[in-house]
Design a protein that fits this description.
globular, Aspartate Aminotransferase, domain 1, 457 residues, 15 strands, Aspartate Aminotransferase, domain 2, alpha/beta, 13 helices
């Protein structure tokens, strides 16, 4: 089987040739194809609406549109193609089972067994009970059912600005303002604030965030606002949609202790943060915290739709109580993609690579913060990065218009990436070369400077 180690140059980017904007983007072919598609296809994401380019192919860290423009990829298909587009080992693994056995429902296959054994080997602690799904939302919903089955309790607590999916249960863990759901959160679902170091709700006298105050509030909230039937806390380790917000280092260790003392389970929604994105297989490993339930997705299959729920040994029999199987979960192609992706991370030392890229990015972004009036905060944990744009660094008032402008300007220069209002999000593939990362950040720097000039800063 071909591997990137054998073909060392497969993901190399020649910066004398990429980015290569042959025509102003979106180009005429992109616009024409987009118009044809959207005659029928509705409900596009904000990033597509802001820059409706039509992509044709991708290789490693490069994307090509139908007009022949080539872009540096700072999105990874929105946190998905962590190992780059069309990694040879992953593509060949999928192709093998596309020709051998595409689906066998939840019957046992050798490839699924090998994946389970590999997961038990690489995951921390006793996270060795698994079920597989085809979407992050499905994994989150299954994790919620495990929390309830394992405890016999019903209520769940989640946090402001977290994102967990788009089905009713998952949406009820987050903001819910859509008439589709009747503007009513599912019964038994509660939300509380979580520590944001840049925008703390509670601070100490020295101005640093006071994590203990959040825990004190959780205790009061449970006593006053719930019926004392809390099955679990469900949180993203690092907020994705919320803007790559990284909690203070003491938060999750203290929350783990808080939950243990109250016999509440802790579920980490690692759909976005898992599988080398932050420099660990699970982001929670950064804080030495072992969750009871974990949802894994996005980069798990490097683009193939495969997700996982992992539970600690004492809770794995709860899968028997929740009708855990699904039509597509654990199909041979999906298991092959996840196993190959995991092996690539180990073989190519990509946990270390992700950590290195994050450290490199932080140095460059700190320079942007010092030089630009509208850059209020920068953050990174491995290849999960964010830049927060503000009207004034003292008031920290969000500058949404600048977010849109910077996103569009950098995209037009040849950087495919992710907007989130006033927060710029970046998730480059962890295989990216140093100079390619620096080139992408330079393009963002240029776009911020142009935006400041246009807005009169």
């Amino acid at each position: 089987m071909t591997t990137a180690t054998q073909e060392k140059n497969w993901a190399h980017v020649d910066l004398t040739k990429v980015p290569n904007m042959r025509v102003p983007a979106p180009g005429p072919k992109s616009k024409a194809l987009h118009a044809r598609c959207t005659k029928y296809f509705k409900g596009l994401s904000g990033q597509v609406k802001l820059f409706p380019v039509s992509f044709e192919s991708g290789s490693g860290c490069v994307l090509r549109d139908v007009d022949g423009n080539e872009y540096i990829d700072f999105s990874s298909g929105i946190y998905v193609t962590t190992l780059g587009h069309c990694h040879p080992k992953v593509s060949e693994a999928i192709a093998k089972y596309a020709n051998q056995l595409m689906n066998a429902h939840d019957f046992t296959t050798e490839i699924k067994t090998r994946l389970c054994e590999k997961l038990a080997d690489v995951l921390p602690g006793d996270l060795n009970g698994f079920q597989f799904y085809d979407a992050g939302t499905a994994a989150v919903e299954a994790g919620m059912r495990v929390l309830r089955a394992a405890t016999g309790k019903n209520e769940l607590i989640s946090c402001f600005y977290d994102f967990h999916g788009k089905t009713y249960g998952a949406v009820s863990l987050a903001e819910i303002r859509s008439p589709v759901y009747g503007r009513v959160r599912a019964p038994g679902m509660h939300m509380v604030p979580r520590p944001n170091p840049y925008r703390p709700m509670w601070s100490k006298t020295d101005g640093t965030i006071d994590t203990d105050k959040y825990l004190e509030f959780y205790d009061e909230y449970i006593n006053r606002a719930t019926v004392n039937d809390v099955a679990g806390f469900v949180l993203e380790p690092i907020q994705g949609w919320g803007g790559s917000v990284i909690p203070p280092d003491d938060f999750f260790p203290k929350l783990r202790k808080f939950c243990d003392e109250r016999k509440i389970l802790l579920m980490a929604d690692e759909v976005l943060t898992s599988w080398a994105r932050t420099g660990k297989f699970l982001c929670m490993e950064h804080w030495g915290v072992l969750p009871d339930v974990v949802s894994i997705g996005k980069g798990f299959g490097n683009g193939f739709p495969v997700t996982c729920v992992a539970v600690r040994d004492q809770f794995k029999e709860s899968f028997e109580k929740i009708s855990a199987s699904s039509s597509y979960g654990g199909n041979p192609m999906a298991c092959a993609a996840a196993l190959a992706s995991t092996e690539v991370i180990e073989e190519e030392n990509l946990l270390e690579r992700s950590t290195h890229l994050g450290e490199l990015a932080m140095k460059r972004m700190e320079k942007m913060k010092a030089e630009h009036k509208i850059v209020g905060d920068v953050r990174a944990k491995g290849c999960l990065m964010g830049i927060e744009l503000v009207k004034d660094k003292k008031t920290k008032e969000p500058l949404n218009k600048a977010g849109e402008m910077v996103y569009q300007k950098a995209f037009a220069k040849g950087l495919a990436w992710i907007p989130a209002g006033h927060i710029l999000r970046m998730s480059p593939p962890v295989i990216m070369e140093d100079d390619v990362l620096m080139k992408g950040l330079d393009m963002i720097d240029e776009a911020i400077g142009e935006t400041e000039k246009e807005l009169g800063y």
